[in-house]
Amino acid sequence: MAFGYDHVELLLLVISLLFFASIFTDKLSSKFGIPALLLFLAVGMVFGEDGIGGIEFNNTDGAEMLGSIALCVILFAGGMGTKFVDIKPVIGPGVTLATVGVLLTWLFSGLAIWGVFQLYGSFSVITLPYALLLAATMSSTDAASVFGILGNKGIRLKHNLRPLLELESGSNDPMAYIITATMISVLTQDVSGWQIGLSVLISITWSVAFGLVVGFGFAKLMTWMMQKMTLSNSSLYPIMILTACIFIYSMAYFLGGNSYLAVYIGGLVIGNSRFPYKRNTMGFIDGLSWLFQLLMFLVLGLLVTPHNLGKVVIPALLVSAIMMLVARPLAVYLSLWPFKKFNRIDKAFTSWVGLKGAVPIVLAIKCASEGVTNSDILFNIAFVCTLVSLLAQGTSLAALAKRMRLTLPKEDRQPPLHFDISLPEEIQEKAIEVLVTEEMAPVGTHLMDLGLSKDSLVIMLRRGDEYIFPNGQTLIEDGDYLLLMSDQDHAIVRTYDEDMWELELIRNTGEFFSQLFHADEPKKKAVSDLFKRTKKK
């Protein structure tokens, strides 16, 4: 099915159906542990030229432009969501992985890919420069995949591994972009060997330096402006931040810096600064990031023609194995060798989180737009490698981290879901939502009878669709939701017999309420029975 831009209604209908299909796959992602990004990609393929939808989409220039814009927003959102206090202990190893690690991954992969294709024999077009170009497109880890998988699954890791991986993935795309651009010049122009090395060195130095300066400088200017000025409409603050993201990306490009590094640094600076309506703005940018991830992977799925992948499947699987099992581990171990705080298990897990995503495909599309010969082979190999990475690495991260004993317990505090109010970030972290049950508050119980400690304050009560500002004499009913503020995890407790607190199950309030009200039915019943037994003592 092909349609032109004159069929606006049909275009919008198709886009909405694709979006619905992708959004509904999120349930499958949660249930079976499949990365949502992979499912978005699959939806695009199902509705593509070889799928049931039969949608013909071959606009590589449009896909490249969309990919660049999407990566801009995704990296900016990733920077905004990263707390500087978390990445401060891992700045050294993170930057090393994002620079030296990418260079080593590129070099090891390129040489190995060239050797494999020489033995394979069916692809004589894979010369050493071409193999190095293919390796360059896949030398970085993908920020959208890492942020999406770690964030969506709520994986918390020991030894600051999560901020390390997020910092690496958010800042290593510039290096991959520079190497790819250099290798494109090698294949399309007459460039000698020493010129290649000099060009890479100059490009890296200039791009990184100006990317840092532009990202940091304009982000600081933007936060200062937002703190000093007052806009008439609060809805303009998120739009202003989005405009800052686009402005930083564009200015970095025109000044010769790396745009992707600039927007990540800009997002990091803005996200760690104070400004009005920050929580609403963070939610807006995060939602926009998911929108662009969805759209980008959908378009990439539509762009690929599955029947063309058959002839590259075997070499692509070999390339994937080389990068996952040889090149990436070697690069990680050598890059982290000076940092003694990471043990071999940390390095092994970091090696496995070499997730690929949209970046290799977008860079492969760039190769086609720049006139690289046989770029279709490169695109198809990059696409298969991305699928393999998301399937093999993306689906196994949570289980592998648990098996390696690298996981930390999930946060006990859950963000309030039944109170649609905006709170400052510092206060938001101390807000706890509690569902009242009959065991907690029998008929006739007043708020003051709940036995809350002096460190806790009930600031709002929700009963159905009604919101109440309670006092100590307010009657509490089964099914009420309480919004509490507390400085201590153990402050929100019901004062029963002291013998009850011998049980570690309810020593931590957040864990207790989570188990009681958000567990499966057998566990709910077990905890409820525990309450009844202890009340009888």
Brief descriptors of the model:
537 residues, mainly alpha, four-stranded antiparallel beta sheet, 62% helix
Main sheet specs: 4 strands, antiparallel
Globally, the shape reads globular
The counted number of beta strands is 4
Contiguous runs where pLDDT drops below 50 for at least 5 residues: 489-519
**Element string (H = helix, E = strand):** HHHHHHHHHHHHHHHHHHHEEEEHH
Q: How many individual helices? A: 21
Strand composition percent: under 5%
Summarize the structure.
Helices cover 62% and strands 4% of the residues.
Please, could you describe this protein's structure?
The protein is mainly α and 537 residues long. Helices cover 62% and strands 4% of the residues. The protein contains 21 helices and 4 strands. Strands 1-4-2-3 form a 4-stranded antiparallel sheet. α5 packs across α8 (161-171), α5 packs parallel to α9 and α14 (313-335) crosses α17. The longest helix is centred in the middle third of the chain and has 36 residues, at 193-228. The protein is globular. The protein starts with 7 loop residues before the first helix and ends with a helix. The relative contact order is 0.11.
